[in-house]
Amino acid sequence: MSYIKIGSKQHHRAAIGMLLGSVVTFATMYSPQPLISLFTEEYGVSPALASASISITTMALAVALLFVSRLSNLWGRKGMMSLSLLLSSGFAIASAFVDNYYIFLVLRLLQGVSIAGFPSIAMAYLNEEFSPESIGKVVGVYVAGTSLGGLIGRVVVGAMTDLTNWKTALILLGVVNLVLSLWFWRNLPESGNFTRKRESAVQWLSSMKQAFLNRDLLRIYLTGFLLMGVYISILDYIGYLLLEAPYNLSQTIFGFLFVVNLAGTASSVLFGKLTDRYSRRSVIALAMGVLLAGMILTMVGGLWVKIAGVALVAFGFFAGHSVASGWVGILASKNIKAQASSIYLLFYYGGSSLIGMSGGFFLSHFGWNGLIIYLGFLLIAAAGIAVSAHDVRARVPSRTGAAAGAVARDSRPVISKKTTFHVR
């Protein structure tokens, strides 16, 4: 098997391609988030329906993720990823030319389906084309692109909306994404180690059933569902609080609020290390405590206190997600790891969609404090579910200390690389 050599021309093209692909994917996915309160004002829709501009995309993505990886096993990696990026960019441009909000939502749904073709295949491509000893260098660039993409999408659209209007902002972002997608298609090295695989529907369904019916895994799926739902609800609806009196932030300044998501990069690494020393139950409970503290801060104090609260929410969420996603990889047996990861992402993005939309109901009827109380109960439920799951550290004492440390070191980095890119 011939791997791409670090430092070679192919390595640089692959690294740049992965960076640009993840930027396009996550910029497209989250670009309407600063506009949610604007949709309520312009189209006269409820906050719950306005937030569907994000939730319908993430739900479509969640479902499509279950199937796209199977297609790539038959059709190839680069072609599927390129098609994903080109289609999602095209739908982004098209969405700016519609005047009916419901048609806009249909295009956002199609974006979700098309987006799924990149994140579900990118890690498979990297694992096939780079040696285990060198893949970390490329994955680091790819993960950076996921954070950068979500940030760019929100900030660029927010700033351009102030300068022009939101439709022009989406067109500009879509055109830039299209150019980046074309570069990806032309320059990403072809798969050299890909082998087409055939798996019957019966085999696939059997593995999915096994991964779904595992009680400990199901607890972690539900934890991811609730965590993501709480987090995305706060990001979806914070604009209703900060864009109106007494704060009256501009779209540009509000867009830069999402820089706080970068706190998640530090927290995911920090809490990943903590799981080497302490039980996952304790570590995830701590992460949720930080998230809850941030939620409470958004209910009190002035503007800067609320911004600090959102930063704590991001810190706690990414910490909790890194622990939960790593837990899935360790609990799942070798033959169902891929299926368990897919189901976790289904629940994860499902929480973004379903809880995100339900949060709009509470905001409309009970205000911001009512929304936070609702989300607080969900977070407490998530903590209770998580701490009831089997703590895999309980398996370690039967091994020698050195072996136990090796297990922790061997498992955690791989999980981090495979899951962090989904968070943004």
UniProtKB/TrEMBL annotation:
Positions of transmembrane segments: 12-30, 50-68, 80-98, 104-126, 138-157, 169-188, 218-243, 249-271, 283-304, 310-331, 343-365, 371-389
Organism this protein belongs to: Paenibacillus apis
Subcellular location: Cell membrane
InterPro entries hit by this protein: MFS, MFS_dom, MFS_trans_sf
Single GO MF annotation: transmembrane transporter activity
Gene assigned in the entry: yybF
GO cellular component: plasma membrane
Protein's membrane topology: Multi-pass membrane protein
Keywords: Cell membrane, Membrane, Transmembrane, Transmembrane helix, Transport
Protein name according to UniProt: MFS-type transporter YybF
Family: Belongs to the major facilitator superfamily.
Residues covered by the Major facilitator superfamily (MFS) profile domain: 14-393
